Amino acid sequence: MADPVNELEHAATEHSTEVAHGEGHGYAHWYEDPSVWVDAAVALFFVLIVWKGVHKIFAKMLDDKSRAIEEELDNARTLREEASALLAKYQRDQREAELTATELLANAEAEAKTLHEESAQHIEEMVERRTRLARQKIQQMEAAALKEIQLTAADVAASAARELIAGNLKKADQDALLRDAIDGLDRQVH
């Protein structure tokens, strides 16, 4: 880096040489020329800036700004990584939820099919059982009706036989039959 003080001296020397040789604006002496004073003031300003360390203040400000930008970039990088991880987690959860939903749907369909088959089988068994019970009832009712018909026929036949016997037998024959029947019962009991 060039030293500003040396540059200022060099510029002043060149300017004074020009003035002394009659070049420039036509001033008799170099110190009468305002551009010399402007140049000197600018050079002095830069010397004071360097001497007081203003450049260090600007450098510190730039370093601080650089650190702040770096921290923001690190924070943005961290947030991006967290967002990527969160996105991956949500995508994984979505895939798992889709798999679970597919499994649940398949299980529900299989269970519905099984229940349908079981209910069809149950209905078939129930119809078969009721048919068998109905046949048994019909057989029982037929047997009861047949027995009742037989009893009624026996009663009718016995009544008819009594009437015929009573009408055809005489009183003495009836008494003899009655005694024979009582004696037969007596023998069967004892």
TrEMBL record:
It is a single-pass membrane protein. This is ATP synthase subunit b. The gene is atpF. The keyword Transmembrane helix applies. Keywords: ATP synthesis, Cell membrane, CF(0), Coiled coil, Hydrogen ion transport, Ion transport, Membrane, Transmembrane, Transmembrane helix, Transport. Pfam families: ATP-synt_B (PF00430). Its main location: membrane. Belongs to the ATPase B chain family. Component of the F(0) channel, it forms part of the peripheral stalk, linking F(1) to F(0). The b'-subunit is a diverged and duplicated form of b found in plants and photosynthetic bacteria. It is found in: Cell membrane; Endomembrane system. The lineage of its organism: Bacteria, Pseudomonadati, Pseudomonadota, Alphaproteobacteria, Emcibacterales. The chain crosses the membrane at residues 36-54. F-type ATPases have 2 components, F(1) - the catalytic core - and F(0) - the membrane proton channel. F(1) has five subunits: alpha(3), beta(3), gamma(1), delta(1), epsilon(1). F(0) has three main subunits: a(1), b(2) and c(10-14). The alpha and beta chains form an alternating ring which encloses part of the gamma chain. F(1) is attached to F(0) by a central stalk formed by the gamma and epsilon chains, while a peripheral stalk is formed by the delta and b chains. Residues 59-125 form a coiled coil. InterPro entries: ATP_synth_b/b'su_bac/chlpt (IPR002146). GO terms for cellular component: endomembrane system; plasma membrane; proton-transporting ATP synthase complex. One of its GO terms (molecular function) is proton-transporting ATP synthase activity, rotational mechanism.
